[in-house]
UniProtKB/TrEMBL annotation:
Similarity remark: Belongs to the WhiB family.
Cofactor(s) listed in the protein's UniProt record: [4Fe-4S] cluster
PANTHER family per UniProt: TRANSCRIPTIONAL REGULATOR WHIB (PTHR38839:SF4), TRANSCRIPTIONAL REGULATOR WHID-RELATED (PTHR38839)
UniProt entry tagged with the keyword Transcription: yes
Lineage of source species: Bacteria, Bacillati, Actinomycetota, Actinomycetes, Mycobacteriales
Protein name: Transcriptional regulator WhiB
Post-translational modification: Upon Fe-S cluster removal intramolecular disulfide bonds are formed.
Domain (4Fe-4S Wbl-type) ranges: 45-102
Keywords: 4Fe-4S, Cytoplasm, Disulfide bond, DNA-binding, Iron, Iron-sulfur, Metal-binding, Transcription, Transcription regulation
Length: 108
């Protein structure tokens, strides 16, 4: 006995009327290019240290985190990531959130 194949209507027809954004079908989170874009995180020195140093309490010292960033080979990728993703907390690419805001405004 063969199963009966019938085309079922969408379970939520109202959603089928909403067009998918451009490039939606092309996005693959397991794509090699997507993975390569974030491989820098595996090479970052901060990945091997205490994350609390990079997310200090308000008014806490950022000196230790910035010292680590100075020696990091992926510092520029880290800063680019933070700026592109509007990271609001922590030290990224050697800059605090306040310093990144100033950089975006062209003050630094």
């Amino acid at each position: 006995m063969q199963p009966i194949e019938a085309e079922l209507p969408p379970s939520r027809p109202h959603l089928s009327l909403v067009p998918e954004p451009d490039g939606y079908d092309d996005f693959d989170p397991f794509d090699a290019e997507t993975a390569t874009n974030e491989e820098w995180q595996d090479r970052a020195l901060c990945a091997q240290t205490d994350p609390e140093a990079f997310f200090p309490e308000k008014g806490g010292s950022t000196r230790e985190a910035k010292k680590i960033c100075q020696r990091c080979s992926v510092r520029s990728e880290c800063l680019e990531y933070a700026l592109a993703h509007d990271e609001r907390f922590g030290i990224w690419g050697g800059l605090s959130e306040r310093e990144r805001r100033r950089l975006k405004r062209g003050i630094i």
